[in-house]
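Reopening this one. Same input as before:
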Amino acid sequence: MDLGLTKIPKHIPSKYFYDKNGDNLFIQIMNMPEYFLTRAEHEIFRERTKKIIKSLRINNENYFGLIELGAGDATKTKELLKVLVYKGFDFDYFPIDISKNALEQLVKSLAMEIPKLQVQTRQGDYFEVLTGFKELVYQKIVLFLGSNLGNLSDDNAARFIYQLGSNLKSNDRLLLGVDLIKPTEIVLPAYNDAAGITSRFNLNLLTRINRELNADFDIEKFRHIAQNDEKTGFARSFLESLAHQQVTIGKSNNTYHFVEGEYIQTEISRKYNDTIINSIIADTDFVIETKIMDSKHYFANYILKRE
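Same output, byte for byte:
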């Protein structure tokens, strides 16, 4: 977990946000008034469900697998799942998540809300899990929502989409949810809310490292920082060192030095437009079939076909 601290500038992969406390804090973030992303994508799934189903080219006669990467609490996906079950589609739902706690909570909520839904959870790394689906003959629909792609650089996003496609077959589809480029006054509060929940979420990363890797980060000597570059479409989150200090990670027996004002990058939140998406998928086996947006055009769900 600590490898990014040897780099210049220092960074920690954002996937390590999600322990039990991180899961709970992120659910709070998604419900913040400033966090438009969840509401915008939820609107798409709630108000444009029929268009999503039509665009996915699925029917009641053929079985398919609905695979969600990073399912979390599946609040948005439930809108689609309810309609699919009600209309008698023959499918299983495969939520994939790195967090065992998130999957356990999801199974409980789905059992109450959609009791007829067939659920098969998969815990672990996306591609390790997807490899098990590769040779299956039925159609696969992969959901990658919440603009999670935006946590990657464009080069890494292109590699991610390419690798995703390598685990799918012709006519499988990817429903890709991404945040769109928009003014900083809309974007930045989503990553620096007035209640300070995002700050607690970011700092919890250090708490987790202390607990799981026997480190001695002084949480009081770091603070959360958020930035947004409207021209390039990149929002970033950092932890800023508030003093000259050193931190030891006992599990690896490594010591790291920080100067006052030094940043640890903890998250990239990339924003997109059609040009950027087309650039990212240019060398993959995917083509864009449909783009579905919310009423404010804040967010888009692209439906990509694997050729």
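So the earlier flakiness isn't reproducible anymore. For the record, The CA atoms of residues 128 and 255 lie 32 Å apart.
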